[in-house]
Design a protein that fits this description.
The protein has about 270 residues and is of the alpha+beta class. Helix content is about 45%, strand content about 15%. Strand 6 and strand 7 form a beta hairpin. The protein is elongated, with a radius of gyration of 22 Å.
């Protein structure tokens, strides 16, 4: 076994579970991870003392870790309480980007076969949605879309269900940061109108877009939640107006999307 492989085996607990050598250990990094892990499960806002207790650190170490997270934009503070910001999600983005398509794709294929239309899954990345999986069918709208494609969140059904899943202040910040281009005469562009639309999406559980991004196209989307009830992605079906009447979209298409949503809620971590 070469030196690099030996080091990896040591770090992962293989090779007889040898302890990690002090020279290979980054104590500060481990402390930072402990501080991040202190949040969650109802502990969204914590004081330095609370973080120190939960992370099993001394107060000075907890304070340095928290202030570093604030300086890097991963946390914020009102000088007493600290809380993580949405940027912390970027730390897990690589894992989610790798695992979500694999878990979602079979359900996406079954959905496309059931409704005989193309469908896509995406995640929110700042002011945009990023496509992570797509199942194509004949005569699709947006034929150039593929995993990795990006669209603005404010005017897409995918983006709106994901924005609606965020706390209202975070959703507003992202909408205000968006360019909010008027793609068609139907595009909502004002912060007031978009926040009102997000309220509707939040209440009804789905987003319906009628020719806001592109003329003659309509789409509907639902959030995809994990077993903890967290929105980790969204799935959409886009149709040309000739095949996508409002009645079909809010009936057959939405029913199939909700069935897929329930199915994935039982398997997504």
């Amino acid at each position: 076994m070469d030196r690099e492989a030996e080091d990896i085996a040591t770090a992962t607990g293989d090779e007889g579970k040898k302890p990690l050598r002090d020279v290979d250990r980054m104590g500060g990094f481990a402390k930072g991870l402990s501080v991040i892990e202190a949040f969650g499960r109802g502990r969204n806002r914590l004081t330095i003392a609370e973080v120190a207790r939960l992370a099993e650190l001394d107060r000075a170490s907890a304070r340095r870790c928290l202030l570093t997270l604030v300086q890097k934009g991963y946390a914020k503070t009102d000088d007493r309480y600290f809380e993580l910001t949405p940027r912390i999600l970027s730390l897990g983005h690589s894992y989610l980007a790798a695992s979500l398509p694999r878990l979602v794709r079979p359900s996406l294929d079954r959905l496309a076969d059931r409704i005989r239309e193309s469908c896509s899954a995406a995640v929110l990345d700042g002011t945009e949605v990023v496509y992570i999986a797509r199942s194509s069918h004949h005569r699709i709208v947006g034929a150039g879309l593929h995993p990795g494609s990006r669209l603005p969140a404010y005017c897409t059904s995918l983006g709106r269900v994901l924005l609606a899943a965020l706390p209202e202040d975070q959703a507003r910040e992202l909408i205000e940061a968006s360019e909010r281009t008027r793609f068609t005469d139907h595009t909502l562009t004002t912060v007031k109108a978009l926040m009102a639309e997000l309220k509707t999406v939040r209440e009804q559980g789905f987003a319906y877009i009628d020719q806001e991004l592109e003329l003659n196209s309509r789409s509907v989307a639902v959030p995809i939640v994990n077993f903890a009830g967290e929105a980790v992605a969204a799935v959409t079906v886009g149709l040309h107006v000739s095949r996508g009447s409002p009645e079909r979209i809010r009936g057959e298409i939405l029913e199939a999307l909700i069935d897929m949503q329930r199915e994935l809620a039982e398997i997504l971590p």
